[in-house]
Specification:
- This protein is about 35% helix and about 20% strand.
- By secondary structure, the protein is an alpha/beta fold.
- The protein has two domains: about 250 residues, Peroxisomal Thiolase, Chain A, domain 1; about 150 residues, Thiolase/Chalcone synthase (Peroxisomal Thiolase, Chain A, domain 1, 3-Layer(aba) Sandwich).
- Strands 1, 2, 5, 6, 7, 9, 10, 11, 12, 14, 16 and 17 form a twelve-stranded mixed beta sheet that branches.
- It has 13 helices and 17 strands.
- It is globular and about 60 Å long.
């Protein structure tokens, strides 16, 4: 028998701040987290200079070096976001963390680029292993975030690593949901993380999909806008604590929301060009899993990368499912594209907004592109949202599609 899955803890680090209070102030104030990254001036032929960093992130001094030496910045942020989420859930120090009750499902795109750089510098360029430390590989292995989170908190349940680019965080949550749904674990730590590096900017730059508004960073990215010119890479980490409803009730946990549905599929057509059919299909899969119709959804948090073809494809797919009556927006106008973290950060922030009865507008969306479908885009000011049910969508290179559906619980 399927079980019910609820959210009992959540937090994150983002270009808009750490924790909901700081993020809320940034969203309501229309603040952008995008900056010009002067250090990238030295990279020949790189056109973009834009990124959205978390800021002066420093791990707590109380963290033991023995546990952090295997971590790059992405794992450090993942661990901090998880620590805050576990504290929010009332699970820090709880025996459920170490007795096999709790597992982890966490994602990132490729691990820390700093570790990759060490191998490239010494092994490939220098043709030597001198200078390579044992922990350098651990910092960039594909499951570095999930493994480091598990060892830091002593988690002994199932470990899932979702290394699927921009759907890493949403697949982390979806996989955790299914793990509890089918009785494999009672508790799962779920989310995604990414650290900002010039190599990520170069990926989009080479594809002519990165914004080059280098002298006006806060005016970009511009999702769905007629004048958009590409995405802006960013960093952060987001963690949700998911639990079996009965387990959460037995320990007296506060319940923020219920995960109602999850869908994931692949396009099977092209590695980088988005496919509206696959996007539409994944939304319908999530609705089917949740046993809901499109009319039950009161708000959709879009992926919204601000790329030329991505926005057009996603808007068409969304219109095919919902028509133009459901309010929609994306948070990437505020904080750029956090890649492996975006699914987790956007689900967390949207959950917080809908709990308070509102949704942020898409920052920098001044004039909707005529090629984008006629959705009910939230622009300019925040929108009051009366519904307690929302969908959060993400899409990735390789044709990976994800859709999550939540129903928020009444506020305390």
């Amino acid at each position: 028998m399927k079980r019910r899955v609820v959210v009992t803890g959540m937090s994150g680090l983002s270009p808009l701040g750490t924790g909901w209070k700081a993020v809320r102030e940034s969203l309501l104030g229309g603040r952008s987290g995008v900056q010009r990254i002067d250090a990238w001036d030295e990279v020949e032929s790189l056109r973009t200079r834009l990124g959205a960093p978390v800021g002066d992130f420093v791990p707590p001094e109380s963290w033991p070096r023995k546990k952090t030496r295997s971590m790059g910045k992405d794992s450090l942020m993942a661990t901090r976001a998880t620590e805050l989420a576990l504290a929010d859930a009332g699970l820090l120090g709880h025996p459920a963390l170490t007795d096999g009750t709790t597992g982890v499902s966490y994602g990132c795109t490729q691990g820390s680029p700093r570790g990759i750089e060490v191998y490239a510098k010494h092994f490939y360029a220098g043709r030597t292993t001198r200078g390579i430390r044992g922990n350098d590989y651990i910092q960039f292995m594909s499951h570095t975030c999930s493994a480091n989170v598990a060892q830091f908190f002593g988690l002994t349940g199932r470990l899932v690593s979702t290394c699927s680019a921009c759907t890493s965080g949403s697949q982390g949550i979806g996989s955790a949901y299914e793990t509890i749904l089918f009785g494999r674990q009672d508790v799962m730590v779920a989310g995604g993380a990414e650290e900002l590096d010039g190599i990520d900017a170069a990926i989009f730059d080479v594809l002519y999909a990165a914004s080059t508004r280098n002298d006006e960073p806060t005016t970009t990215p511009r999702p769905y806008d007629a004048d958009r010119d590409g995405t802006v890479v960013a960093e952060g980490a987001g963690t949700l604590v998911l639990e079996d409803l009965e387990f959460a009730r037995q320990r007296g946990a506060r319940i923020y929301a219920e995960v109602l549905g999850y869908g994931t599929c692949c396009d099977g057509r092209h590695m980088t060009n988005p496919d509206p059919a696959g996007m539409e299909r994944v939304m319908r899969l999530a609705l089917e899993d949740a046993e809901l119709t499109a009319d039950d959804i009161g708000y959709v948090n879009l992926h919204g990368t601000a790329t030329e073809v991505g926005d057009v494809a996603e808007s068409a797919a969304t219109y095919a499912v919902f028509g133009g009556s459901v309010p929609v927006s994306t948070l990437k106008g505020h904080m750029g594209h956090t890649l492996g973290a975006c699914g987790a950060l956007e689900a967390w922030m949207t959950l917080e907004m809908i709990r308070e009865g509102w949704a942020a507008p898409t920052l920098n969306l001044d004039r909707v592109d005529d090629d984008c479908a006629p959705l009910d885009y939230i622009r300019g000011e925040r929108r009051e949202i009366a519904s307690d049910c929302f969908m959060s969508n993400n899409f990735a290179f390789g044709g990976v599609n994800t859709s999550l559906i939540f129903r928020v619980a009444p506020r305390d």
